[in-house]
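Dear colleague,

Following up on Tuesday's group meeting, I ran the structure prediction for the two-component complex that the binding team flagged. I've pasted the input sequences exactly as they went in, so you can double-check that nothing got truncated or mislabelled along the way. The C-alpha cells for the whole assembly follow below. Feel free to forward this to whoever is handling the docking comparison.

Inputs:
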Amino acid sequence: MDYAAVIVLQVAYGVANLALIGLGLAIIFGMMRVINLAHGEFLMLGGYTVVVATNNGVNLWLAMLVLAPVVVGLIGVIVERVLIRFLYGRMIDTLLATWGLSLFLIGLVTTIFGPTTTTTVSPPVGALHIGAFFSSGYELFLIVITLVLFALVYAVMKFTKLGLLARGTMQRADMAAALGVSTSTIYMITFGLGSAVAGLAGALLAPITGVVPTIGAAYIAKAFITVISGGAAILAGTASAAALLGFINQVVTFITGPTVGEVALLVAAIILLRLLPTGITGRFFRRSL
Amino acid sequence: MMSLNRRTLLKGASAASMALAAPALIGRAAAADPIKLVAILDQSGGLDLLGRPMLAATKLAVDEINAAGGLVDRQIEMISYDPQTTIQFYTQFATQAAAGDRADVVHAGITSASREAIRPLLNRYQSLYFYNTLYEGGVCDMNNFCTGSTPAQTVEKLVPYAMKKWGPKVYVVAADYNYGQITAQWVKKYVADNGGETVDIEFFPLDVSNFGPSIQKIQAAKPDFVMSALVGAAHISFYRQYAGAGLTTQIPLASTTFGLGGEHLLVSPEAAEGMLLCYAYFEEIDTPANKDFIEKLRASSSDEIPYVGETTARSYEGVYLWAEGVKKAGTADRAAVIEALRSPVSFDGPSGHLTIEPKTNHLVQNVYIGEIKNQKIEIIEEFDAQPPSDTLLVCDLDANPNQSTFYFENGLAAAGIE
C-alpha cells in the first residue's frame, strides 16, 4: 500500500517533470513556430542564475522563483531582438540560428564558470515519509508548482489583454498589425515569457539534477518530444502529452529499468505521431489553449 | 609488399635529400633529435573534466624529466592533441601521431571506447601505447601498457570491506555502457565470492537524470548497501536525489567511480557523507612524494584542479614508468623499451611503489579504501602490491606474445569467468 502510494507519487512527478521542461518550449515553438534548439541552454541558464545568486547570499526561494525567470526572460528578450526577429516565418533557419546560439551559450558558460561548478544547491524541502518509504519532499513541491505554473500561463493567455494580443498575433500577424497591434513588441514579449518559463523550470530542477554547462542536452530532446506530441494547443497539448509519455516512461521504468523506460517513451511518441500526425491536440481538445 | 616498396623508396629519397642538405645539417646533427611523446587526451567535450588535469600531469612529468637532463641524453618533445571527446578524432590523431609525428610513445585515451579505437591502430603502426585510466580490465596486448587500476584491484577490495561493515545484501546501480556493464558483473562475482547476495542490478543510460523510480525500487529491495558504478555529469543527479529522499543515512553507498573527478565536492556534504570509495590513488595519500607532486601539479597547471584523482596521478606516473623503461633499455626504440619495461621496471610515485606485471603489461600497485567525511576523503585501508588478477585469468603475454585482444569486451562470461 505504501509502495503503491510511492509509485503514484513517482508517476505524477515524471509527468510534472516533462510538463515543466516542455512548457517554455511550447510557448516559443508551439505558439511562435520558432524551433528553439537553445531551449535546454535556457534551462541551464536558469540553473546558473540560482547558483550565482545563492553564492552571493541570495535566499534560495527568491533566486529560484523570482531571479531566474527575470534574468532568463531578459536574456530571451535580447536574443529575440538581435537574432530571432529576423527569422520569423523561416522555421528551418530558426533551427540553425538557435543551434548556433546553444553552442555559443555552452561555450560562454564554460568559459565563465568552467566545465563543472563546485557549487552545491541542496533541495530546500526535506524527505517525505510514506509508511516505510522515504520519498523526496522536493519532488512533491515540483508537482505542485508545475500545476500552479500551468494555471498562471493559462490565466495570462486567457484573461489578460496581453494574452489576447499574443494569441491574435500568432494566428494572423498581418491582420493583428492592420488592427494597430505592434506585432514586433508582442513577439518580443512572448519570446521573453517563454524564456522566463524555461529559466524558472531550469532553476527549479537545479537542486535535484545539478548544473553543468552541458546539462541542456539532457532536456532538449524530451522537451521537443513532449511539445510535438502535444500538438498545436500549447497548454492542453503539453499537459496531455506529458501525462501520457511521463506515465509510460515511469511505469515501464518501474517494471523493467531506466533503459527500457527511455525506449518506451520514444516508441510511444513515435506511435502517437504515426496515429495523430498533428499531435494529441490536433485531434482532441482542439478548441483549447 | 606495396607499402614496403614505397617505404624503401621514401627512405632512398630522404637519404638523397639528406646528402644534398648535409652541410646545413651537420651542425644540428650533433645535438640528438628529441624523443617524441604524443598525448591524446580530451581537453573539451564531455570528458574534459578528467582530460584537462591528465594532460597537465603528463606535461609536468615531461618537463621534470627534461629539466633533469632528458632521457638517454635526448630531450622529450611533447605533442598534444585534443580529440574533443569524439572517437573519430581519436583515430585521426592516433594516425597522425604514429605516421605523421613518428611518436616514440603515445599516452592516450580515457574511455575504453577511445582505447579500443586506437589500440589496434597503434599496434599496426608499431607505436608504443600507454593507457593511464582505470578500466574494466582484460586488455592483453604486447604493445599496450595499461597503468590504471582494474576491478580485481578495487572492486575485489571494496566489496568485502563494505559487506563486513554494512551487511551482505547489495544493490548495484551502473552506467549503461561497456564499463558499467562489466564492472557490475565483477561486483556480482565478488559479492557471491564473499557469500553475499546481489539483490538487483540496474543500468542507466548516460543522459538519464531522473532516478526517482530506481530510488523507490532500492527501498523496496531493502539492500544493506548500494554499490554505484554511475558515470558522468547527468548521473551525479542520482546522489542528489538519493540524499533528497533522505536515504543516505538509511542505506549507505559505495562506489568505484564517484570522486574520481572530485564529484564529492560537487554535491552537498550530506549527499556523499559516509560513502566508501576505492582507488589506486587518492589526493589525501600522506607521503612526501605525493605532497610534492600535488604542489607542483597545481603550480604548473593553468586550470584550477579541484581534486587530483587516480587518472591524473597515473598520467604522471605513466610517463615516468615509460621513462624508466627507456633508461633501462638505453634507447627509445620500441622493441627494446617493451623488453625493458617487462623485465620488469618499477617506479616510486605519488601513489606508492608501482611495478609492471609482465604477463599482462598491467601494474602491480597499491590500492586504498577511502571514506568521505564532510567532503574530505579519509583513507581507512591500504592494500600493498595488488596484482591485476582479473586480467591474469585470461592473459599471458609471456606464453603468447602475439595476442592483441580485449577479453572482457563482451562481458565476463565471454572470457570464461563465472
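Chain A touches chain B through 44 residues (CB under 8 Å).

Cheers,
M.
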